[in-house]
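Re-run with default settings, no changes from the original entry. Doing this only to confirm the output is reproducible before filing.
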Amino acid sequence: MKLALFILAIAVAQAGNFRAAAVKVDITPSDSQWLMGYAARQSTGIHDRIFHRIVAMDDGVTQFFLVSSELCVFSPAVYDDVAAELKQQFGIAPENFWWTVTHTHSAPEMGAPDVYNILLKGRSEHEWSRSYAAQVKSKLMEGIKEARSKLTPAKVGIGAGTANANINRRAVDIDGKVSLGLNPDGPVDRQIGLIRLEKLDGGLIGLVANYAMHGTVLGGKWMEVSGDGPGMVSDYVEKKLGAPMLYINAAAGNLAPIYSVYDTARAGHLSQFGVLLGDKILATYRGIATVDEPVKLTAKEKVLETPRREGLAWDPMLAKYAANDRSGTPMVRIPVRFLRLNDLVMWGAPLELFCEIAIDVRNRSPFRNTFYFGYANGWLGYLPTAQGFTEGGYEPATSLVTAQAEEQLRSMVSAMLDELR
């Protein structure tokens, strides 16, 4: 009996070393804003409110902060600015701060359009809103401070499910040309990756749900601020469970929602994503097991240097993300982050990655669960497959890199996963 009690005491002590918290902070604008994701347009109202959702985790040695913001994209220079301030104010190392976006195309612009102007010249001819950018940044700092103050002893559960809420969007016509549309025969990643954080008594702290789907249920004629499909799903799950849920978009570069670019929420069946994806997240949540061993967090970063696509200008604000190789070829420097949590590895990059690449990395991975976090810590455009470059279409034309990048990224990430193992 004494031995059993001693073992139980050790288990409780080990569990108590891991702490977690989750918070939700409103970033809905109070006035009309330029919306991002399609041609320039200004918002006429609010359909649903948008948020930062923040998870903090602490294993007793490392504190890690994961943010999911209901925004479309922002420059890596915006991330660098916030990361530097977090380090100065709170001592948080940049590798322990990941800032992702859900990629809703019905959210305000955030920060200067430097990468946007390189790849999508003409969409951001207007002045960007300094006041809204300051609001987003201030709310993020407040949210991280709050999450840190709410860290509580916790347990973690990890698992995966599936949902059929997405579809390949690279439509192939009879002449072989590829354009944005719907392609039911194309590659698709329907995995839901899920992290459940709960108190030692079983009370839910929050969820992290990883799923690949563009935030484009609503199209370019839609004029109201909205979290789109990802935001709707987060709100649906939160109302069911009473705790924040971070929607972390995965390798959605060539994946659309099955209802895409509609003029109204009703026409796009926006609420149906609660059934198509929200209910599948809830089913996965109920079925995953809690990690038995003590939780350990290990964060790493690798930088991929890959040739820049010819003919592209560069913005001085992005000097950190450019280089020349020994022959003078212009290169793009892409920071890739890794976080190991026991037998789960999360890896993230500021990219709209084609799903085949993330699936292949996952299949090669030595870890039980491997999740890709897209749109992480800024946006450096699309990274298609080499085949995608051959086929052409919108995504290769909106990329900073060349067809070499696919294999370079696969090799680097797989080697890093082996090293982490």
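Residues 1-15 have pLDDT under 50 and may be disordered. The radius of gyration is 21 Å.
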